[in-house]
Amino acid sequence: MKNLYSSDLTKAHYDAIIIGSGLGGLTTAVCMAKAGKKVLVLEKHYVIGGFTHTFKRKKMEWDVGVHYVGQVSIKNSTMRKAFDYVTNGNLQWDDMGEIYDQTIIEGDVYNFMKGKEAQIKQMIAYFPEEETAIRAYYQLIDKVSADAGSYFAEKTMPDWLSNLVGHKLQRKFYEYSNKTTYEVLSSLTTNKKLIGVLCAQCGNYGLTPKKSSFGAHAIIIAHFLEGGNYPVGGAASIHKYITEVIEHHGGILAIKAEVKQIIIENNKAIGVEMQNGDQLFATNIISNAGAHNTYNKLIPASVSHAEQLVELNNIKPSVSHACIYVGLNATDEALHLPKHNIWHYKNYDLDAANEYHVNTKDSASPVFYVSFPSAKDSAWQQKHPGTASIQVIGSYPYEWVQEWENTQWGKRGDEYDAKKEALKNVFLEKLYTILPQIKGHVDICELSTPLSTKHFSNYNKGEIYGLEHTPERFRLKLLRPRTSYKNLYMTGQDVLCVGVSSALFSGIITAICVLKRNLLWRISRYKAQ
């Protein structure tokens, strides 16, 4: 098996050991490898890439976490330049078209158009009496997402500089990140339907309007305003091309390489201990395992800083979900399937519907997100001729399957299998109500629960977005690349915010902190060959 962990890796000393091969870890690795550093990436599972990996059944495949990415269609955008830099320009993108998201609420259909002005115009057409509120809302999205840049820049500062000037960089962002999305929107309008529509993409950060930080909302909405894009060849193209660059520069990736703990002596990280007892040493240790895993599991209890654990553990894990992966025996074109995503809601009061759901065991998800990877990917028909793929994601609390958490993946027992089968049929029937034309064309349908997410991502509660994106989350000081342990760093979505782009940039700012180089200057001037 390629990249299989071997104890021979203990014979070398590394400039950096990176725990976890999610996008944040891979990005840090490629930036350091390009800087001439000796890098080792350790991945617990048998696949590289975290939420950028794909899996196959028969002749089809599905992504597990990359459904669309914004801003990469703009060739000179920082986002596109960053992806070009870490993949040497090999990663290409398909545009999803003029509509990138569609939401259906109580049967009413709303389209999210590519381009801010087009989207504003469309929203005003839906709610002509709310033009003033709509324009004010998009102005706020611009402002808060721009202020987030300074907030994130502060995270690269050493403690002494952060203590001196950090609050000045954070102040403007905190003005709105300290408020919930509902607080901000209800200050602009009393129209509950409009608030429901403007919050319909909240599944991208996993919290309903009355719980989520408006800072997270603004960052995500702004990210997609210029439309959505999908990697040519599927989500796995992302980690495939980054891995090639890492290995080209002498970096090493190892799978089935589970880290037991980080070795810390005199408050300094010096290496990692593997589950088999091996010890590997490096100048820098970088965790891409998430904040909860890093501080609660990987840092030995004997050297943990108790006050940090209290602070961190007050922030809950983000939402967990169930998902069906559907394979069709006809093409997207033949079945008239769209490229845009569909958000299907039970009613306009997103908070009330979600509250009922999480407090009523085995109730149906109040939202179903439908994605069409094959329709988005121009390379699909070449690899999988005559077929199409769909994913349907819905909320599903981890507690509803927790009784099976200590069983083996793929062998959890008849009761669990029956529960999965019943849930799969609920999701499939919902899909048929949205897209009745696919009935009779389903060749494959497989369901995953939060236990699957836990198994493959190592998130303890099957969460997909790391820590909840509440106002409190953005005030948590330890969510930054530098930790209070010398030479121990963090990367990944917990460092910045949710999503592919945030994971990418977390990797960049962590590399900036480790290397003490202005990588953004280098990236902004990068030209793919």
Summarize the structure.
38% of the residues lie in helices and 19% in strands.
General description of the model:
The chain has helices at residues 23-34, 78-87, 116-126, 131-154, 159-177, 181-186, 192-198, 214-224, 236-248, 291-298, 306-313, 332-335, 350-358, 373-376, 380-383, 414-434, 450-457, 500-515, 519-524; strands at residues 13-19, 39-42, 54-57, 60-63, 69-70, 93-95, 99-105, 108-113, 228-231, 252-254, 259-265, 268-274, 279-287, 321-328, 341-345, 367-371, 388-395, 442-448, 488-490. It is an alpha/beta fold. The strands form 4 sheets. Strands 1, 2, 10, 11, 12, 13 and 19 form a 7-stranded mixed beta sheet that branches. Strands 8-7-15-16-17-14-18 form a 7-stranded mixed beta sheet. A 3-stranded antiparallel beta sheet has the order 5-9-6. Helix 4 crosses helix 8 and helix 10 (291-298) runs antiparallel to helix 11 (306-313). The longest helix has 24 residues, at 131-154. The chain is globular and about 60 Å long. The model has no long low-confidence stretch (mean pLDDT 95).
